[in-house]
Structure formats: C-alpha cells, structure tokens
Amino acid sequence: MKTLVAVASRHGGTMEIGERIGACLRESDLDVDVHPIDRVNSLAAYDAAIIGSAVYMGRWLGQGRDFVEVRATELSRMNVWLFSSGPISGRSDPHDADDGLRLLEAVNGREHKLFAGRLEKDDLGLTERFIVRMVHPVYGDYRPWDDIDQWARAIAYELRAVPA
Q: pTM for this structure?
C-alpha cells in the first residue's frame, strides 16, 4: 500500500511531525513518501494519504487548505487522515481543529488529529513576532511525540489490514 504524507509547514515543526509519521509507517513495512505539500503534483501513485498543516490563528495554511479542496474528489476515493499542528502550552482553542474537521468531511476521511506545536522566537519574522506577542506566548516545543507515534502506528495497523 503506497502512502503519501504531505505537509504544509511554515517553520518546519509540522514537517517534522510528518517525517515522524512517515518513519513510524516505514517501521511497519509500508511504502511511504513524505513531501512538503507544495511538491506533490499527483496522487495517482498513492493508495492512502496523511495530510497535515500548521494552524495559525485557527486556520490551516492556505496551501494545505487549497491542496485538499482542489483534490477533494480524488482524495475521497482513498484512505485519508488529516492532522493539524499549532496549539502551544495548553492554549488550544476549540476552533483550532475546525479547518481540519471541515476538510476531513470534504474528503470523507478517516480521522483528524490536532497536535500541539512548536513556537520558537528565532523562527518568527517581524510581523509574526508582533502578532504572537499580543497573546503572551510561552515559547517552546509542545509536540506530543508519544501521541504522534501512537496515532501513526494505529494508521499503519489500519493500512496493513486494507487489501492493496
């Protein structure tokens, strides 16, 4: 079963989650490609997809939303999981999952998962620093690696059970 992990990431933290998911799937002997979302030109070679995006101010990155919306019909014929990454320091807003859940429904996907993210001051541009400063952030890496691994292993289990 050929699986795509495609990720929209602004500063690399969400991409690292995608790479970790890909590594877990490979440990289960699955054939996996992990790519930044803007480098995926076709879904023809894939039987399943895991698509993720960073979440900023409650929204998926535009390239992530566009990728799923433009390919919704094609994705709806595959096994699809979505994930979002963004909340930090327990500051999850109930709306952080809204885009992911809406897109999941659009592709008739299996599951959407919201993971905490990473916020490093040195990664931010001037405008981002100004916006972030208004919410009094606690910088750091809040990604729940054990939860990410567990979710990836559950997906691997489901994929191995589906005939190619």
A: 0.87
